[in-house]
Design a protein that fits this description.
InterPro entries: NECAP_PHear, PH-like_dom_sf. This protein is α+β, with helices and mostly antiparallel strands. The protein is built from seven helices and seven strands; from the N terminus they run H-E-E-E-E-E-E-E-H-H-H-H-H-H. It has a seven-stranded antiparallel beta sheet with strand order 4-3-2-1-7-6-5. It starts with a helix and ends with a helix.
Length: about 280
C-alpha cells in the first residue's frame, strides 16, 4: 500500500502544471562563510560589491512544491535551485541588517545523494525583494488551505450519516385530508355568533338613519302692481322754477338762515360750496 501511494504521488507531481509565481531578470549570488553559531546572517559580513554569480530568478509552483530556480540570463542554464515543501524548514532566511539580501538553502542530487548548501542572495532594489517574499508567502497559504480542506473532507467521511434514500421495495405514502366547506372566517367571530341566541339575532335590528329632505326653494318675487307704484315725479319741474323759489324768500330771512349761531365757530361750519348749481347743469 505504501509503495502504491508513493507511486501515485510521483505521478501526480510529474503531471502537475508549473505556474510561475514570480520572476526577475537580475539577482546576485554570494559565497558566504558557514554559520558557526545560531545567530542570524548579516549582509555587512559579506562583500556585497563582489558577487560570485549574476543571473535570473524564478519562483515556480508545481503541485504542492515550490521551486526557486537560479538560471542564466541568455541560455537558461540552471545554476542552483531550492525547494519549499510542507513540513520542511523554510529554504529562505532574511538577514537582520537589510531587506534586499537573503540566505538561500539550495539542494542538489549528486550520485543519488541529496546535498545542500547555503549561499547569499541579493537584489539591486527593494521592490523585487518584497515580491520574492510575497510569492513564497502565497504558496504557503495555498498549502495551508489545501491541508484544511483535506482534513474537513476526512472528518466528514468519518462521521456517520443517515441514509434517507428509499430502498428496493419501499414506498412512500402520503395521506392528505380534504376538508370540504371550510370557511375562511375567523374562529373568534364564529364563536361569538354561535353564542348569540335566536331571539337576540332576530330582535337586534340595524338602526335606520332618517335623512331629512332639503327645504323647498323660495317662491319667486311677485311683480309690482301699477297701483302701488311710486307717484310719478312732476315732469314740468325745471331748474328755473327752483331758482325762482329760492329768490322768493326775503333777504332778511336769507340773512337769518345764513347767519351762524353765536356759539358755533366759523371753522366748524361745513363747506357746502360745490360751485354754481345752475352752471353745473
Amino acid at each position: 500500500m505504501e509503495k502504491e501511494k508513493k507511486i501515485d504521488e510521483k505521478e501526480e507531481a510529474e503531471e502537475a502544471i508549473e505556474l510561475i509565481l514570480f520572476q526577475v531578470p537580475e539577482c546576485y549570488v554570494y559565497l558566504i562563510p558557514p554559520r558557526i553559531s545560531s545567530a542570524s546572517y548579516r549582509a555587512d559580513e559579506w562583500n556585497v560589491n563582489e558577487w560570485a554569480w549574476e543571473g535570473a530568478l524564478k519562483v515556480i509552483s508545481k503541485g504542492e512544491e515550490c521551486i526557486i530556480r537560479l538560471e542564466d540570463k541568455s541560455t537558461g542554464e540552471l545554476y542552483a535551485q531550492a525547494f519549499l515543501r510542507d513540513g520542511e524548514p523554510h529554504p529562505v532566511e532574511a538577514v537582520i541588517d537589510s531587506s534586499r539580501y537573503f540566505a538561500l538553502r539550495v539542494e542538489e542530487n549528486i550520485g543519488g545523494r541529496l546535498r545542500h548548501a547555503f549561499i547569499g542572495l541579493g537584489f539591486r532594489e527593494r521592490t523585487p525583494a518584497y515580491d520574492f517574499q510575497a510569492a513564497l508567502h502565497d504558496h504557503m497559504k495555498y498549502l495551508n488551505k489545501k491541508k484544511t480542506a483535506e482534513e474537513m473532507e476526512q472528518q466528514y467521511q468519518r462521521t456517520s450519516s443517515v441514509d434517507y434514500s428509499l430502498k428496493e421495495g419501499e414506498k412512500l405514502v402520503l395521506k392528505l385530508k380534504n376538508k370540504s366547506g371550510c370557511s375562511t372566517g375567523s374562529k373568534f367571530f364564529e364563536q361569538g355568533l354561535n353564542n348569540l341566541s335566536l331571539e337576540e339575532k332576530v330582535d337586534k335590528k340595524v338602526p335606520v338613519i332618517a335623512i331629512i329632505p332639503p327645504p323647498p326653494p323660495p317662491a319667486p318675487l311677485s311683480p309690482v302692481s301699477p297701483e302701488k307704484s311710486p307717484p310719478e315725479l312732476p315732469s314740468n319741474l325745471s331748474l328755473k322754477e327752483t331758482s325762482e323759489v329760492k329768490n322768493s324768500t326775503s333777504p332778511e330771512e336769507q340773512s337769518i338762515e345764513s347767519a351762524p349761531p353765536e356759539n358755533q365757530n366759523t371753522r366748524d361750519i361745513p363747506d357746502d360750496d360745490f360751485g354754481d348749481f345752475q352752471a353745473a347743469g
